[in-house]
Amino acid sequence: MGLDFDPIEEASRQWALHWDKVPAMHAVTSLMRVQQLVLAHLDSILKPHGLTFARYEALVLLVFSSQGSLPMGKMGERLQVHPTSITSIINRLESAGLVVRRQHPVDRRAVLAEVTPAGRALVEEATADLLAADFGLSALSDEQLEAVSSLLLPIRRAAGDF
After folding, report:
1. Number of separate domains in the chain
2. Contacts of 19 (CB under 8 A, 6+ apart)
């Protein structure tokens, strides 16, 4: 299924013929490629549950919230997605009976997304499958996973992630 050559190594070789900063280009291209590969794997695990990883993340965010609900705008901020995307995600989850929309009790302009009991149950089922697959990262040891997280922390901090 895979290529018979490393496309990132080839891109780096070509890049070096034209520009500098090859290590940065190699690292960012590797990050983006791994993100694509892992996301595709996670989506394939979640597909039997009728979920994508984006929808799963939204459900988990609601499950983790103290009331089981959040304003949709806040969900978009926390998940770092455009308001249109969070609306689409909630539409899909609502049509599947996994969330309901509620009027915000204080701010009449805001709409809350609230996880349903079926949504909570599906999070448990889907999470069990993701855990069994090591979130698609079984090629790395726990120590390597910690190292990856540590390496990415300064980038997240510098970008203002928190």
Report:
1. 1
2. 25
- Examine residue 54 and state whether it is found in any structural domain, yes or no: yes
- Supply the DSSP string of 54-98, one letter for each residue: HHHHHHHHHHHSTTSEEEHHHHHHHHT--HHHHHHHHHHHHHTTS
Q: Which residues span the domain enclosing 55?
A: 50-157
Q: Is residue 118 part of a domain?
A: yes
Q: What is the dihedral of CA 55, 81, 158, 19, to 10 degrees?
A: 100
Cα 111 from Cα 98, distance rounded (Å): 16
pLDDT in tens, 96-154: 999 999 998 888 889 999 999 999 999 999 999 999 999 999 999 999 999 999 999 99
Look up the CATH number of the domain holding residue 130: 1.10.10.10
pTM: 0.91
In a domain, 124, yes or no: yes
Q: Rounded distance, CA 79 to CA 67, Å?
A: 18
